Amino acid sequence: MKLRKFAYTLVAATALGIGGAGVAQAAEIAPGWERYGVYATDGECQAKMNELASKIDGGECYAEGRGHALDVHYK
Fold this sequence. Notes:
Number of domains: 2
Keywords: Signal
Number of strands: 3
Number of helices: 2
Largest sheet: 3 strands, antiparallel
Signal peptide: 1-26
Order of helices and strands: HEHEE
């Protein structure tokens, strides 16, 4: 799923004519996924994803800016 989400980000950044430094700012969430929140540490992000395990089909924590974003795909 990480590769698919990166591909959407890259396509969006390319379409907007943004260079490599702007890719993180133009990040698009892949279809079917939602941004749940942004946490200070990866540990906090992972803990929240584990809490949601019964409600989600998949989740992903990744560094974004100064935090760790949690994107989820609901069942």
